[in-house]
Specification:
Outer Surface Protein A, domain 3, seven-stranded antiparallel beta sheet, four-stranded antiparallel beta sheet, 4 helices, 11 strands, about 25% helix, FAM194_C, ERIP6 protein
Length: about 210
């Protein structure tokens, strides 16, 4: 950013890669977006509420209260159960310098613009036609994605509680600090995923321990 704070981090290790967009802050910068080479990705509102959530099958667009505004499925998952919902191009501005444009599964562009200079990162994935035909009727939930969502919600809970403790220094008020509605909603959704997804009991217990800690 013009402030000197790190805006975009892209890391590759062997066949895996991740792209992270950070808010413009010197310390404790909020993660505004995370995209993984596995096909998963999330974008968040400035408040921390989930904005866009994507996986190998498709994605959904949420409002700040956690309600789903729209959803879509990628062409590669057209053979899966349920109706195929095509993507209408999406463009969102994470802040005044970083935007995300979703045009297709293989064309998800993170654009950065500051001081007359621009950088673009394509964080989409390419699914070959024969690969699409081999996709199972139901794609198992990515364990890394589920853990990422759980840790994200837990960190937001901690930040909210820390903010409350700073606002009310007297410890007698700390027990009264309740998480905002969107965090409660996201916690319940993650716990529901644990119940309905085909994951190991060990992972299920780990995720529940993270969000309920």
């Amino acid at each position: 950013y013009p402030s000197g704070n790190l805006a975009v981090v892209a890391v590759r290790e062997k066949s895996r890669a991740v792209c992270i967009v950070r808010e413009d802050a010197a310390s404790c910068a909020v993660l505004r977006a995370v995209f993984c080479s596995s096909g998963s990705g999330t974008c968040s509102y400035p408040s921390g509420a989930l904005w866009i959530n994507m996986n190998i099958q498709g994605g959904q667009y949420l409002d700040q209260a956690g309600n789903r505004v729209r959803r879509w499925t990628w062409p590669s998952s057209a053979a899966s159960s349920g109706p195929h919902v095509p993507l209408s191009p999406i463009f969102i501005s994470l802040n005044r310098h970083v935007g995300v444009r979703i045009l297709g599964q293989d064309k998800i562009i993170v654009s950065f613009l500051a001081m007359g200079q621009q950088a673009k990162f394509n964080v989409g994935i390419q699914v070959q036609g024969n690969d699409a035909g081999r996709l199972p009727a139901r794609i198992p939930l990515d364990p890394d994605e589920l853990l990422l969502l759980a840790f994200r919600v837990r960190i937001l809970h901690l930040f909210h509680r820390l903010q409350g403790c700073l606002s009310f220094p007297s410890h007698e008020h700390w027990d009264r600090i309740k998480p905002p509605a969107y965090l409660i909603t996201q916690t319940l959704k993650i716990l529901q995923l644990c119940t309905t997804s085909d994951i190991s009991e060990e992972l299920r217990s780990s995720v529940r321990a993270i969000v309920n800690a």
